[in-house]
Amino acid sequence: MVNPVQLQKKTFTTSEDLVRFATDLIVQRAQACVHKNGVFRFVLSGGSSPKPLYTSLGNPAQARLIPWKETELFWGDERQVGPKSPESNYHLAASTFLSRIALAPRNIHAMHGETDNPELAAQNYEYTIANSFGLTSFPAAWDQTSPIMFPRFDIVLLGMGPDGHTASIFPNSPALCTRRWVLPIPAPEIPPRIPRLTMTAPLLNAAKTIIFLVSAQGKQAALDRIFSKDQAWILPAGQIRGTKELFWLILD
């Protein structure tokens, strides 16, 4: 029998309280993962919501509590821009906390958005994931008879747009149902209108712990659907639950 995912929905009145809770949660899970498995695989989000959390993770008081030497960082999605662009999800993390922590460059697995061949970039990122997990192949190299497998990240950090998209998985996206781990995504209809690379919904759903960071402002209609018994599955964010823990941390 499969154990149900443990859902926790928490609403905060201040950003400081939300960041404190999220930081403590990440510290606890990181320590537990390294104690049990010797490694902590953490998938980062882009957008504006995680910026205060990233600043907290780079604070010396918090940074020393996270086993960074045993941590591998990944990104759930990336815009097809260079790493120094203000639109880059990697740039957000680099400018807020990567330079302040003891993490070896080989453990920082950035998606390469600065590409003229997004399909090849997606395949390369699948290879990067496979290599981290000690797997000998990756989806773009499989034939249709290959067994489907999805590596299990320890924590995936996500946000949500007003249309219910998460990472760069938009409504009706091919990334919702696929054998692939990473896909190129055309420029969406909402800004910034930049083509993307994204982890797919099945890969994100294989994670042990999912943490959504969401400001309710401008997104209440999507949140109401997410927590509706009959409509959650309609939006991409409502289809991401993970395998053990699902946290919705909402700034009211």
What does this structure look like?
This protein has 252 residues and is α/β, with parallel strands linked by helices. The protein contains seven helices and nine strands. The protein has helices spanning 15-37, 51-57, 60-63, 89-96, 118-132, 201-205, 220-226; strands spanning 6-12, 40-44, 71-75, 77-79, 155-158, 182-185, 196-199, 209-215, 245-251. Helix 1 packs across helix 2. The radius of gyration is 17 Å and the shape is globular.
List the SSEs and their pairings.
Elements: E1 6-12, H1 15-37, E2 40-44, H2 51-57, H3 60-63, E3 71-75, E4 77-79, H4 89-96, H5 118-132, E5 155-158, E6 182-185, E7 196-199, H6 201-205, E8 209-215, H7 220-226, E9 245-251
Parallel strand pairs: 1-9, 2-3, 2-5, 5-8, 8-9
Antiparallel strand pairs: 4-7, 6-7
Helix pairs in contact: 1-2
Q: Spatial order of the strands in the main sheet?
A: 1-9-8-5-2-3
Rg from C-alpha positions? 17 Å
Number of helices: 7
Strand coverage percent: 15-25%
**Based on DSSP secondary structure assignment, what is the total number of beta strands?**
9
User: What are the low-pLDDT stretches, counting only 5+ consecutive residues below 50?
Assistant: none
Overall form: globular
What oligomeric state best describes the polypeptide chains here? Answer: single chain
List its traits.
six-stranded parallel beta sheet, alpha/beta, 27% helix, Rossmann fold, 252 residues, three-stranded antiparallel beta sheet
